[in-house]
Amino acid sequence: MSDRWRAVTPGLRWLTAPARVAGVDLARGLAVLGMLTAHLLSIAPFDGADPSTWLDVVNGRSSILFAVLAGVSIGLLSAGADGARRRVIRARLAVRAGAVWLLGVALVATGVPVYVILPAYAVLFLLSLPLLSLGARPLWVIAAVVAIVSPLVQPFLDDALPWESPGGADIALLIGWHYPFTIWFAFVAAGLAVARSGFGPRAPLRLVLGGGAAAVLAGVGATLIPDETLSDGWAGRALAVSAHSGGLPEVIGSGGFALAVLGVCLAVCRTPVAPLVLPLRAVGAMPLTAYTGQILLWAAWAALALGTTSDLGAFRALNPLPVFVGGTILICTVWALAWGRGPCERVIAALASRLVPGPPRARD
Length: 364
What we know:
mainly alpha
């Protein structure tokens, strides 16, 4: 984008600044809208021969893409930091985690019938703090090991802890156990590894080929698992392929898919069509604001139209998706062009800077 257009508004200068990685913003925008679509549409299981089912790709994969990009964001925040600066970044990330957790709990309290991802996001922020001093290679190893081992252990953790009791169900919501950090840590570590590997000219191709290979390998492997193995018991859960199952094929396949999508987004934003996706980049530049706004609007709309926020089927029947998608893109684009950083992101960044003084960091 030319300097003439960057000079139009401060927000546009911020959105197109060299410190921002445009492809990361685009991927985050797709993740936010994908999660919204998964919430508001009832989609039949994917069938390559039936185009009406192709949107099933958003189920599960959108939230995993969101987690991978959380790791990328942390990697961008901490790039090149060492010594005192890294300690400041760690402390500020801890503050951000606390603020995101409180916001997530508030969204859970609206009663909107979705598993709010923000509490899990906050826990993953905290778990990522020890990783900030690591380079790309050990981070890739950690991501791979956790992605392979955790799905095999997760059924035992689910059975050992009282998630189904009234108190346990509340705890599960408060820590985002629907997105168990024991598994999802792999996605954040992979995102950190992506950031540490850099965004040079070959990065899009590496991500598309590597992520695509992982997704294909998981898909082929899933077809080789006998149906009787998936019927019940530990093997059926550890090797499950469905969205949000936490099974090994889902973790490897959806994680690889997320990396490939990021690679495609990086490539798109290096072509002449990049200005056309600026509205989606605007959504991705303020994902916390977009996600929070969607849940709050859902709660208000459902309460006024239905008298309750908890009836998912009745709310879907109102066909709210076009309003949500169009409104999110429009509002985020206008805000980004006029003011830059989103309001939620702005408040949390100011809080972290106030509580943990230190050198400012332009990249977020």
